[in-house]
Amino acid sequence: MSKKAIVLLSGGLDSTTVAAIAKSQGYDVFALSFRYGQRHEAELQSAARVAEVMNISTHVIADIDLRLFGGSALTADIDVPKNIDQGSDEVPVTYVPARNTIFLSFALAWAEVLQCHDIFIGVNAVDYSGYPDCRPEFIKSFETMANFATVIGTESSNRILIQTPLMEMTKADIIKRGIELGVDYSLTTSCYDPVGDSVPCGGCDACILRARGFSEAGLDDPQLNK
User: Fold this and answer.
1) Residue 91 to residue 129: CA distance in whole angstroms
2) Nearest by Cα to 92 from 212, 224, 14, 209
3) What is the span of the domain harbouring residue 126?
4) Of 6, 12, 9, 24, which is closest to residue 177 (Cα–Cα)?
5) Phi and psi of 189, rounded to 5°?
6) Per residue, what are the HEC states of 155-215?
7) How far apart are CA 167 and CA 171, in angstroms?
């Protein structure tokens, strides 16, 4: 019997790599995406393509509406900043308040139904935008809470694990690892403010980090050659 894992799949570069890693480790992947009112909803089309190409049989898209609260350039009428200082310590306005806490909570609920102890998320503390819910301290705290808050965490001999295989990797190393695993990055979408349905803007934080990763990996970004 194969072991189960829930993978948070946004359709972006990082989450797609994480899905490939989970599959390479022998997990039966259950993919979870969110339609949360994000302006870059095109990422859900990418998530569906990734799930299909990777033969992920179960892909759930959960509908929640974080536009009710706003507070982010991704969920409110706030311009997505372009070409910002990558060395700044200030958390950019593309941070969505408590987003990873919300997403992991949904994943935890599904994990309990599936009797699954492994949840994968593509957070990174090296090449990232400085979001507080991408830090290892946050993941450790959420994992501790998960094992207190659920039946499978309190009554099972197996702990719930929040797996973060990309946490200490550069974007270039993430891309190289994905290529080793056969990831087709042309399927993925990273841009926060795409032109039309899918053309990346090239100037938002996500686009800049992606471009730098491919450059440092010595590779062309196949998304730009579609």
Assistant:
1) 7
2) 209
3) 3-225
4) 24
5) -135, 130
6) HCCCCCEEECCCCCCCHHHHHHHHHHCCCCHHHCCCCCCCECCCECCCCCHHHHHHHHHHH
7) 10
CATH of the domain at 140: 3.40.50.620
CB atoms within 10 A of CB 88: 10
| pLDDT per residue rounded down to tens, the chain (226 residues) | 579 999 999 999 999 999 999 999 999 999 999 999 998 888 999 999 999 999 998 999 999 999 999 999 999 999 999 987 665 678 889 999 999 999 999 999 999 999 999 999 999 988 777 899 999 999 999 999 999 999 999 988 889 999 999 999 999 999 999 999 999 999 999 999 988 767 899 999 999 999 999 999 999 999 876 5
Element at 8 (helix H, strand E):
strand 3-8
Q: What DSSP string describes 80-120?
A: PP-S--TT--SPPTTPPTTHHHHHHHHHHHHHHHHT--EEE
C-alpha to C-alpha distance for 156 and 85, rounded to whole angstroms: 46
Question: How many structural domains are present in the chain?
Answer: 1
Quick one: which of 176, 198, 180, 181 has its CA closest to 189? Answer: 198
